[in-house]
Write a structure and sequence with these properties.
Length: 796
């Protein structure tokens, strides 16, 4: 679009004219054609160049305008562009200054409106006409605002020029008639002209503003009245809806309970892949839950009030339905939270004061290039990973952290009902994941033969022992026994899959919990842990999958579902739901909560089929439940945990030095201790030494095994058959690794068999699951009392 050629210098949106622009010391000032339009000041050599060649442009929104003398002024945008300009006269210069200041004010407003356009966007109206009216009002308001800004700018200029004119008139009064009279009269005339120009600009702006205001005043009054009437109608409608909602709620709570003939059939004990859980939200009293069972989806609703009255009186019919005897303490009557007034808790007397802090984590930046640089010329199996990815605990110590909420098993041991006991076991299972929500550091991979004891017999009534029983694949055996009537044992191997953006860690192996008094034997497996943003972004951890807890004595089952995180889900993050059923598949308890905060349970009083259809078209099971009771709640992290690897109170004590532990205990591992002290470079060097020592010991065992199998050959296996553990457990590896769950012997990837025999665990076939496993043979605590550790290997 071409600009008009006629140079009509009048203040407005577009202003054109000749000015002299400073070029250099040789040519000095040169005459150029300047055009001011849309907040931009452009110049050309001649008017003819306007259609094709622009010599330069400066944005006035960020520019500074300064006057040097009667004809000269400077425009600069902060150093990159500076125009030294000169007008033919002071009046001409003032016209340009006025036009430039007005254009600058408009450009600044336009830039601010552009930056805030996202905030000023209006929501879509119900109809097209409403959206058009809204857009028209917004446009009119912007125009009026622009005119008000013009008035403000003109007001400032009038005040400025009016003061100058007043000074000139005062000077004129004191001048004697003579030679300087004509000069003073000329100055007064010029200042009066400037004042007239500015006044005319303000008068024009006022006229435009008044015309717009009058044109839209009546229309706005009608629109305002319509909005008021619509608001009154909405308030009346909302009040009616609230009354209807209250009426429906009272009618629903007084509805008749469904007959027992509609109760749900037995649930498949094996279970198939479940459908998606119900996406309904929970109400304020936590009486409605989203949960997912093996065969069909279900929802829960509050039970009829008569069940609440019957449960409070301990009616024998309800007790028999729950499998309890009269006079026993039911799950609804006892507190689900820890009871500090119980006799056993009063007997707990700490024998020593445990530490509550460790040195703060150093703020060392990780240079990936320095890692790759040190790998040049080395075999892949000999590349060590730095401790920057670790936390100062071993995998054995992380395994012992499962006992942080041991009180759940203590309370489960007191239960008379196996179904109640199942609820506590399920809460204990979920609680073991609560420490992982912020723990993005990788624990140290234990050395073969490494152990870790957690002796809390006098403080908490239990003892725990872990041992690394296999190195390829890595596997650890764990055994804990409590004087309060329960035993926990497990053997966990890890399989990992690296998918580029995330790392999935699948624990393999079963966990066993045996209660001495009832002889109930529970087994379950762990869910998948996923570490997201491995390469780019902030690391975060999620738990997902399903757990089936089975009581092998009674046939009771608990199916837990850990919902994976979804950006589009309406459910709370890290949600866990579950159902406790008896051997016939009848539901008795519904569990709900999150694996990082708490778990609750509700007793099922009635169940029926025929709710809303699920995502796959099947009908949901409706459970009528009593009010939820809290089973477990996470203990808050200690103060300053973000600087201590987000360790819990128990985790802070796990690596605390203790006297009398075995020489293979993780507390005596030097690289882990150096990392805890913040000496990471020394820890990296020590880690390499320990890994080389482990490779040497393994070569010696293979040599002895080959001599026994082939005494005439005595060949030594190649070093290339050895796989460095720091590579196999690194979250940065780019290959997928799947670890066998049932190795007949400890075997590396090249097929070599390791003849290592665990110190405190015997390898056997589990009688409950039929899986090969390691079970504690005994003797560790007796050896500790004797202080005779001569048979322990030297691994550090």
């Amino acid at each position: 679009m071409s600009e008009p050629k006629a140079p009509t210098p009048a203040p407005g949106d577009t202003y054109k004219g000749w000015l002299f622009k400073w070029t250099n010391y040789i040519k000095g000032y040169q005459r150029r054609w300047f055009v001011l339009s849309n907040g931009l000041l452009s110049y050309y050599r001649t008017q003819a160049e306007m259609g094709h060649t622009c010599r330069g442009t400066i944005n006035l929104a960020t520019a500074n305008i300064a006057v040097e003398d009667s004809c000269n002024f400077v425009i600069s945008n902060g150093g990159t562009q500076t125009y030294h300009l000169k007008a033919s006269s002071e009046v001409e210069r003032q016209r340009w200054i006025t036009a430039l200041e007005l254009a600058k004010a408009k450009a600044f407003r336009m830039q601010a409106e552009s930056d805030d356009s996202g905030d000023e966007s209006t929501p879509p109206a119900a109809g097209q006409g409403g959206g058009a009216r809204n857009s028209e009002v917004q446009s009119t308001l912007r125009t009026l605002g622009s005119k008000v800004e013009d008035l403000s700018t003109c007001n400032d200029l009038i005040a400025k020029h009016g003061s100058a004119l007043q000074r000139s008139l005062s000077e004129l009064e004191g001048v004697r008639l003579g030679g300087e009279t004509s000069e003073k009269i000329r100055q007064v005339t010029e200042r009066a002209t400037l004042f007239r120009i500015t006044s005319n600009a303000m008068i024009n702006a006022c006229r435009d503003f008044l015309a717009l205001a009058q044109a839209h005043s009546k229309r706005w009054q009608k629109a305002l009245q319509a909005e008021r009437e619509q608001r009154v109608r909405l308030e009346e409608t909302l009040e009616q809806l609230a009354k209807q909602h209250n009426h429906l709620e009272r009618a629903f709570r007084g509805a008749t309970v469904l007959p027992p003939s509609q109760s749900n059939p037995a649930i498949d004990s094996k279970g198939s892949v479940p459908g998606k859980g119900d996406a309904s939200d929970e109400d304020e009293e936590n009486e409605f839950f989203d949960a997912c069972e093996d065969v069909q989806e279900f929802i829960t609703v509050p039970a009829d009030p008569k069940y609440h009255r019957r449960s409070g009186s301990n009616v024998s019919g309800i007790s028999s339905e729950m499998g309890m005897d009269d006079g026993t303490t039911s799950l609804d009557e006892q507190s689900m939270a820890s009871n500090p007034e119980s006799p056993q808790s009063q007997e707990v007397v700490p024998v020593r004061k445990r530490r509550t802090r460790i040195p703060d984590k150093p703020n060392y930046s990780l240079n990936l290039w320095s890692i790759m640089k040190n790998c040049i010329g080395k075999e892949l199996s000999k590349i060590p990973m730095p401790v920057n990815f670790n936390e100062p605990l071993s995998m054995l110590q992380r395994l012992s952290e499962d006992l942080e909420y041991y009180e759940l098993l203590d309370r489960g041991a007191k239960c008379q009902s196996s179904l109640e006991q199942m609820c506590y076991v399920a809460a204990f299972t979920v609680s073991s994941y609560s420490t992982t929500v912020h723990r993005t550091g990788k624990p140290f991979n234990p050395l073969l033969g490494e152990t870790f004891e957690l002796d809390r017999l006098q403080e908490s009534g239990y003892r725990s022992l872990c041992e690394q029983v296999s190195h390829h694949p890595p596997a650890a055996a764990h055994h804990a026994i409590s004087e309060r009537g329960w035993t926990l044992r497990q053997e966990i191997a890890l399989a990992s899959k690296f998918r580029g953006k995330y790392l999935s860690i699948m624990p393999l192996g079963s966990i066993h919990c045996i209660f001495e008094k009832s002889n109930n034997h529970y087994t379950w497996k762990k869910v998948t842990t996923t570490v997201h943003n491995i390469i780019v972004g902030k690391l975060w951890i999620d738990q997902s999958g399903e757990i089936d807890i089975v009581n092998h004595r009674t046939g009771d089952r608990c199916h837990l579902k850990f919902a994976p995180y979804s950006y589009f889900s309406r459910d709370v993050a890290r949600k866990v739901t579950g159902v406790v059923t008896d051997k016939d598949g009848k539901a008795h308890y519904v569990l709900s909560g999150t694996w990082d905060e708490k778990m609750e349970c509700s007793r099922v009083m009635q169940s029926s089929r025929g709710g809303e259809n699920g995502a796959d078209g099947r009908q949901k099971t409706v459970y009528q439940t009593l009010k939820a009771k809290e089973l477990w709640r996470k203990t808050p992290l200690p103060e300053g945990a973000e600087n201590m690897y987000y360790f819990s109170t128990l985790a802070l004590t796990l690596n605390e030095p203790e006297e009398g532990v075995a020489p293979t205990d993780s507390r005596k591992r030097p690289d882990q201790r150096l990392m805890e002290q913040g000496r990471w470079e020394e820890a990296n060097a020590e880690k390499q030494r320990l890994e080389e020592k482990q490779r040497t010991a393994r070569r010696e065992r293979e040599r002895e095994a080959n001599r026994s199998a082939n005494p005439e050959e005595g060949k030594e296996p190649a070093d290339g058959a050895l796989i460095e553990d720091s590579i196999s457990d690194s979250p940065l590896k780019t290959e997928e690794v799947e670890i066998a769950t049932e190795p007949s012997e400890t075997t590396d990837k090249s097929g070599h068999q390791d003849s290592y025999k665990a110190m405190w665990f015997d390898r056997c076939v589990d009688p409950m699951t039929g899986e090969p496993t390691h079970i504690y043979r005994g003797g560790y605590w007796e050896t500790k009392e004797q202080g005779n550790w001569d048979s322990c290997p030297d691994i550090f």
